[in-house]
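Researcher: Please predict.
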Amino acid sequence: MTSFGDLLGPPPVRLPAHSAAEAQLEAGEHPAIVAAAHPAASVAWAALAEEALAEDKAITAYAYARTGYHRGLDQLRRNGWKGFGPVPFDHEPNRGFLRCVAALARAADAIGETSEFERCRDLLDDCDPAARGELGLA
């Protein structure tokens, strides 16, 4: 059974940790340095996107979030995800990807790209119904 109660659905995907990238971010290293050293780590791109959003740099945030989103999709596929199914927020290594999706939604909304905003919200709901709430995205 999946974590969301669907007996016939795919099992949840739990990405492997990017321990080095996460440790550098937790130690206060700037996300740009972490992203350069660990470009596959969505968590670094999420941090960059969130920082850009906080500075009202929506286009920059959009680019960072899209990069992290695509790097996360690559990892999800390598770990068995077929484009649908659970990606639980409560599994810490999944959060980098999910944060990128939320940041991409916010950036898309800021530049008036409504269809992208809605696709991102739908993707978060499909990945984990609790993700939007956890990420503060109504």
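Model: Residues 29-134 form one domain.
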